[in-house]
């Protein structure tokens, strides 16, 4: 990733977030934070509420209680478009690009809030970061490979120079080599450029390697938190993934 | 108000009521939105006309038409119904396919517009725009009746009303039968109804044809009363009027349809007669405003009271045995005996001989109460009890008082009261889940340990199964076995291919290569609904209950072979299918009690909590009497207490000989209930064993950490 | 050959009118997800607005402008007052179609109540006629074709090159992601109703010019042609609707010349039913 990228990082403070899809809450009383320059990861078994937490932070899922602050703004239950306007870049796990639109048009949509001249400039910058996309600007996004598609999704949010990135399993369905490259080359670089990054990952080991801090979620709650070194040292860390010594939920 | 005016009203009301009943049956009950409904009334009208009219040369050529058979009453009316039904057949290609409901509705609407245009323009067929007139009234040629006499007119009205009542009884009979329940299930969720083995094309075809026949009859009666019929009488907008009537009266409620017919088509026509006419008003104003009002009524009613004036009523099914205590319940049960619950039987057995030996297996949850071909279900899990052939000699799981065929369980007092230690296995993974307290059997349902399971036969087997999606291998050569009577867990990180594998086992997804063996038979090429009929049943990850059916009805909808679940059976009436229904209700009640949902039996499934709805789906799957059950995350989003209860009951079912394979994310559930557990990662089976064993294996730990 | 050419001329005019209407309808459906069957009723309302202006002694072309504005505003109101509230409630697509049929009756017969049941015509000169081979077209017909071409070029430019048009396509493709990009999809949808409502009004007036005389129910059949063109091209596909309009427009008029004018709609009808039955995503439509 080119070094010229300099992002104005925005700290995330989510306090006591409880949210769900109408019935019983899926996540309960979760407090997480991420500061500029930091990669913070959310790991944990399937169904532990990681994706729901991200969705509640960007206004896709409604909070029943708790607060979400980004920088000095209160974004609790703001509409997704308002969250985006507050310089929060969210990459969903699926449906992360506009399939019928071309690669260039996808990037333009990412820069929807920018002035026209700025859009061209930012597209150039995204292409410098993801050179692979340069050769396929006219191709429709639905025809990209999994890795290219994820690059496009990341490039799309980069258009707005977000101060906070929320990435939902960016490496899902990618080959291990591609996945590791994405994490070490690109995700880590976002934080180095100044932004705060909150990333949900299934590949716990790989994401811990690039994280400054990490939360382990289970059953809709934060089970443990700490630096990768602290977590790895805990005997119950591995077990938290394999569900030993706990009752249901 | 003179008599003829009243007769007029009555005949119109009867005709409109019939049409609305037909539409209510299609739209309200079966969910088939037929925007071309008026076509069928028109067809019936023309059919009756050309059957009753003499040959067109006989009336001096002032009107031309085909037919002209001069047939006596009641042939024109019968013909009207027949033609109305037949003309519906070609439309099934629109509604039977998996076409979006609104697109199909557009197709039917456009058909109505176009057919009207064709009949208007093509004069030789049915006299075109001018339409047919001088259509003979019933018995017009007889000298016995004077057509103009009040007596004749009254007779006509009474006959029309009688036929409307007959139509009402007809549609009610269908709707209130098990067949009607299938129709309503299709309306609520056609994909799930399909997976339960309902033939959607057949159901929709029957609905189009019966609705068409009813509409045709109404048209036939109408034209022989008013003696004229022309394209202007059946514009596409007339269908909208009928829809307005059904929506306002209450879709799905046949009395509501009649009320709607009286309020909208009849009432509107009549009210405007009392608007004072003035020469200052443009001639078209009143009819135009009538249409505007009907449009307003539709929109306003759909907003304010979408269920209509008389909403579809809830079908409450009284449970024969709720509230009776467990102890001694068998003795105290009514003579009907169909209520013999699963637990009560077991209790009765431990206390002494049952007074109702014939009911012994009736209450068992997955034993059929009606005759069925022998099913290859294993007798029990006791040590080495499986017959060598893999086909036990008994047709069904032995009831507690029947000694198991191989005698292994005799003397234990209950076939399900088995000690796992009796099999000689001393496996360290032996666990005793907290079943006993919940089901009142003492320690009777101790789960067979994996060592015991090793001895039992293989029910379901995947042999080197591969599934590719566009070149990507989601499942890359999986081989594993599921043994009879086990609750096998299937775990693995996201994207490991668990759900894909489950779908291939159930047949909802085809294999790219490899084989699926079920009960010793290669079922790789057998479609999902046929596998379900063989006893291999799956549930889905997404909620799939029929929302506007009660919990009890949801369960009953899964019953196969109910005699009332065919069109013919439904018409033969409750006397024909009542016994099947009673037996099914008893079985459903036993399942409801088992899962502690009996007090919700008469709640709409759509009103339950998320967890309870998952339970409804599991119970519904059990109603199909599966040999092997495939559950896709049955406990996702379920409250822990309820999840534990589900787990306990699944274990108990397995102890009775059922085989269950369960995909689940929450590994604590695996600890508590599943043995063995199969781990998948990256499309392949990584390991198999108890959860405790697996947790110690480094490759499993790695799979979960690396993802 | 002369029959063919003259019918081809008619076909081009019909296709032009149809293209304007079908592109509006398909965009409306694609972006807003409402299968608005009241579209035909709004068209004829527009035709009558232009008639009222025309009757006041003003040029029908001025009437056209007024009709475009009225239909645009009316469509926005129809959406915000009726369709959006129903959609917010989670009303099923089939019930939305029934609501739109109710609105059809209200608008169409509301127009009839105001205008009376008789057919009317604009007071306008057809201008001189052009002859090219067997092809005969009046000035008005040429203007209609030119207008339609302009609209098609305009829609193409909008969708391909403007921020708004791309936002419309993005909203149609993935509304949730569009919001994540900061696009206020509510506004995009409102603008879409305004724009497609304007196309609807324009289509209504040129339809009325083309047919000579018209009454309040005149678009009942024309809606069949619109639906046929839309489904031929694939619902929601603007370019598909253009292609569908040309095919249906020319096919109906040419078949009218060779069979009989009374049955010219049959071609459209058969095309629509085949598309619904065999390939509901349209000729060039992709799977959704």
Structure overview:
The complex is a heterotrimer of chains A (249), B (707) and C (288). Chain A is an alpha/beta fold and 249 residues long. Chain A is built from nine helices and ten strands. In chain A, β7, α6 and β8 form a beta-alpha-beta unit. Chain B is an alpha/beta fold and 707 residues long. Chain B is built from 27 helices and ten strands. The longest helix of chain B is centred in the first third of the chain and has 27 residues. Chain B starts with a helix and ends with a helix. Chain C is mostly helical and 288 residues long. Helices cover 76% and strands 4% of the residues of chain C. Chain C contains eleven helices and four strands, in the order ααααβββααααβααα. Classes of the chains: A alpha/beta (249), B alpha/beta (707), C mainly alpha (288). The interface between B and C is large, with 47 and 47 residues.
Question: How are the SSEs ordered, and which strands pair?
Answer:
The complex is a heterotrimer of chains A (249), B (707) and C (288).
Chain A: E1 12-19, E2 27-34, E3 39-43, H1 50-57, E4 63-70, E5 73-74, H2 80-85, E6 88-91, H3 103-110, H4 116-129, H5 146-158, E7 164-168, H6 176-192, E8 196-200, H7 204-210, E9 213-218, E10 221-226, H8 228-233, H9 236-242
Parallel strand pairs in A: 3-8, 3-9, 6-7, 7-8
Antiparallel strand pairs in A: 1-2, 1-4, 4-5, 9-10
Chain B: H1 3-29, H2 37-52, H3 75-86, H4 92-95, H5 101-121, H6 123-126, H7 150-175, H8 178-188, H9 190-195, H10 200-226, H11 236-249, H12 254-271, H13 285-304, H14 329-332, H15 342-351, H16 436-439, H17 450-455, E1 458-469, E2 472-483, E3 487-491, H18 498-506, E4 513-518, E5 521-522, H19 528-533, E6 536-538, H20 551-556, H21 567-572, H22 574-594, H23 610-623, E7 628-632, H24 640-655, E8 659-663, H25 667-673, E9 677-681, E10 684-689, H26 691-695, H27 698-706
Parallel strand pairs in B: 3-8, 3-9, 6-7, 7-8
Antiparallel strand pairs in B: 1-2, 1-4, 4-5, 9-10
Helix pairs in contact in B: 1-7, 1-10, 1-11, 1-12, 2-3, 2-10, 3-10, 11-12, 11-13
Chain C: H1 2-32, H2 39-55, H3 60-88, H4 93-115, E1 120-121, E2 129-132, E3 135-138, H5 139-161, H6 163-173, H7 175-180, H8 185-211, E4 213-214, H9 219-233, H10 238-258, H11 264-278
Antiparallel strand pairs in C: 1-4, 2-3
């Amino acid at each position: 990733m080119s070094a010229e990228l300099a992002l104005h990082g925005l700290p995330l403070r989510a306090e006591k977030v409880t949210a769900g899809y109408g019935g019983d809450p899926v996540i309960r009383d979760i407090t997480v934070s991420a500061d500029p320059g930091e990669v913070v990861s959310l790991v944990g078994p399937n169904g532990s509420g990681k994706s729901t937490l991200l969705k509640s932070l960007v206004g896709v899922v409604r909070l029943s209680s708790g607060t979400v602050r980004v920088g000095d703004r209160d974004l609790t239950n703001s509409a997704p478009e308002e969250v985006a306007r507050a310089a929060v870049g969210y990459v969903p796990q699926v449906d992360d690009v506009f399939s019928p639109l071309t690669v260039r048009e996808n990037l333009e949509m990412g820069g929807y809030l920018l002035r026209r001249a700025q859009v061209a400039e930012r597209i150039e910058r995204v292409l410098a970061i993801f050179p692979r996309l340069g050769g396929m600007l006219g191709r429709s996004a639905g025809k990209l490979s999994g890795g290219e598609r994820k690059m496009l999704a990341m490039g799309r949010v980069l258009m707005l120079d977000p101060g906070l990135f929320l990435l939902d399993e960016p490496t899902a369905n990618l080959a291990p080599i591609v996945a590791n490259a994405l994490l070490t080359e690109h995700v880590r670089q976002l934080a180095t450029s100044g932004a705060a990054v909150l990333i949900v990952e299934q590949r716990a080991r790989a994401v811990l390697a690039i994280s400054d801090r990490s939360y382990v979620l289970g059953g809709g709650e934060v089970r443990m938190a700490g630096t990768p070194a602290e977590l790895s040292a805990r005997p119950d860390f591995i077990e938290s993934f394999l569900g030993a010594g706990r009752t249901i939920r | 108000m003179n008599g003829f005016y009243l007769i007029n009203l009555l005949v119109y009301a009867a005709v409109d009521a019939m049409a609305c009943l037909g539409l209510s049956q299609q739209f309200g009950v079966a969910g088939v939105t037929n925007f071309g409904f008026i076509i069928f009334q028109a067809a019936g009208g023309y059919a009756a006309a050309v059957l009753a009219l003499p040959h067109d040369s006989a009336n001096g050529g002032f009107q031309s038409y085909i037919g002209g058979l001069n047939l006596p009453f009641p042939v024109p009316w019968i013909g009207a119904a027949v033609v109305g039904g037949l003309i519906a057949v070609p439309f099934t290609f629109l509604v039977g396919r998996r076409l979006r409901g609104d697109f199909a509705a557009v197709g039917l609407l456009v058909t109505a517009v176009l057919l009207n245009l064709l009949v208007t323009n093509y004069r030789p067929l049915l006299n075109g725009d001018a339409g047919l007139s001088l259509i003979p009234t019933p018995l017009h040629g007889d000298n016995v009746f004077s057509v103009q006499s009040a007596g004749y007119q009254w007779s006509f009205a009474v006959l029309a009303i009688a036929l409307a009542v007959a139509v009402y009884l007809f549609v009610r009979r269908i709707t209130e039968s098990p067949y009607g329940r299938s129709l309503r299930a299709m309306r609520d969720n056609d994909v799930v109804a399909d997976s339960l083995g309902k033939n959607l094309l057949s159901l929709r075809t029957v609905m189009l044809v019966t609705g068409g026949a009813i509409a045709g009859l109404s048209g036939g009666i109408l034209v022989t009363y008013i003696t004229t019929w022309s394209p202007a009488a059946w514009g596409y907008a007339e269908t909208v009027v009928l829809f307005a009537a059904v929506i306002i009266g209450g879709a799905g409620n046949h009395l509501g349809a009649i009320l709607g017919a009286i309020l909208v088509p009849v009432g509107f026509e009549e009210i405007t007669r009392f608007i004072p006419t003035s020469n200052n008003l443009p001639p078209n104003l009143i009819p135009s405003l009538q249409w505007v009002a009907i449009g307003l009524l539709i929109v306003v009613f759909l907003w304010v009271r979408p269920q209509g004036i008389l909403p579809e009523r809830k079908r409450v099914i009284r449970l024969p045995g709720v509230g009776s205590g467990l102890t001694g319940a068998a003795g105290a049960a009514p003579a009907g005996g169909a209520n013999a619950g699963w637990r009560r039987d077991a209790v009765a057995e431990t206390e002494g001989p049952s007074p109702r030996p014939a009911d012994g297996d009736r209450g068992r949850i997955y034993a059929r109460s009606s005759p069925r071909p022998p099913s290859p279900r294993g007798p029990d899990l006791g040590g080495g009890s499986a017959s060598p052939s893999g086909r036990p000699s008994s047709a069904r799981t032995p009831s507690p008082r029947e000694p198991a065929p191989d005698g292994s369980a005799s003397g234990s007092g209950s076939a399900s009261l088995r000690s796992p230690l009796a099999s000689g296995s001393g496996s360290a993974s032996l666990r005793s889940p907290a079943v006993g307290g919940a089901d009142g059997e003492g320690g009777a349902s101790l789960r067979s340990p994996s060592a015991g399971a090793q001895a039992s036969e293989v029910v379901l087997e995947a042999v080197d199964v591969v599934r590719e999606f566009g070149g990507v291998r989601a499942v890359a050569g999986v081989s594993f076995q599921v043994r009879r009577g086990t609750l096998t867990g299937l775990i693995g990180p996201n994207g490991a291919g668990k759900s894909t594998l489950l779908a291939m086992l159930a047949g909802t997804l085809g294999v790219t290569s490899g084989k699926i063996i079920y009960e010793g038979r290669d079922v790789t090429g057998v479609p999902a609904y046929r596998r379900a009929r063989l006893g291999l049943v799956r549930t889905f990850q997404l909620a799939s209950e029929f929302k506007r059916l009660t919990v009890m009805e949801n369960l009953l909808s899964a019953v196969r072979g109910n005699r009332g679940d065919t069109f013919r059976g439904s018409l033969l009436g409750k006397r024909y299918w009542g016994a099947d229904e009673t037996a099914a209700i008893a079985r459903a009640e036993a399942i409801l009690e088992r899962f502690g949902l009996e007090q919700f039996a008469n709640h709409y499934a759509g009103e339950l909590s998320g967890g309870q709805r998952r339970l409804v789906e599991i119970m519904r799957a059990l109603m199909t009497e599966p040999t092997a059950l495939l559950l896709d995350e049955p406990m996702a989003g379920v409250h822990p207490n309820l999840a534990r209860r589900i787990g306990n009951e699944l274990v108990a079912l397995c102890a009775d000989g059922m085989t269950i394979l369960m995909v689940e994310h929450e590994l604590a559930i695996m600890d508590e209930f599943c043995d063995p557990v199969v781990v998948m990662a990256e499309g392949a089976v990584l390991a198999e064993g108890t959860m405790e064993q697996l947790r110690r294996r480094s490759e499993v730990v790695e799979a979960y950490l690396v993802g | 050959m002369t029959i063919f050419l003259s019918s081809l001329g008619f076909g081009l005019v019909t296709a032009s009118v149809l293209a304007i209407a079908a592109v509006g309808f398909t965009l409306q459906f694609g972006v807003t997800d409402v299968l608005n069957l009241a579209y035909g009723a709004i068209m004829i309302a527009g035709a009558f607005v232009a008639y009222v202006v025309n009757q006041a002694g003003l040029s029908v072309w001025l009437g056209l402008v007024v009709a475009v504005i009225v239909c645009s505003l009316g469509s926005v109101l129809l959406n915000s007052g009726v369709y959006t509230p129903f959609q917010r409630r989670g009303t099923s697509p089939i019930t939305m179609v029934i609501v739109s049929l109710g609105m059809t009756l209200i608008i169409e017969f509301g127009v009839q109540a105001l205008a009376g049941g008789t057919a009317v015509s604009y007071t306008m000169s057809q201008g001189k006629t052009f002859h090219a081979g067997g092809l005969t077209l009046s000035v008005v017909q040429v203007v209609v074709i030119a207008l339609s071409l302009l609209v098609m070029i305009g829609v193409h430019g909008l969708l391909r090159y403007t921020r708004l048009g791309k936002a419309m396509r993005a909203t149609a493709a993935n509304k949730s992601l569009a919001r994540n990009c900061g696009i206020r999809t509510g506004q995009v949808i409102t603008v879409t109703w305004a724009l497609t409502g304007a196309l609807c009004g324009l289509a209504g007036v040129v339809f009325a010019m083309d047919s000579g005389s018209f009454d309040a129910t005149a678009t009942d059949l024309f809606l069949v042609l619109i639906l046929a063109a839309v489904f031929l091209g694939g619902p929601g596909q603007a370019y598909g609707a253009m292609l569908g309009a040309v095919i249906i427009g020319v096919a109906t008029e040419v078949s009218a010349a060779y069979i009989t004018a009374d049955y010219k709609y049959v071609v459209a009808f058969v095309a629509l039913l085949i598309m619904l039955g065999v390939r509901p995503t349209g000729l060039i439509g992709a799977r959704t």
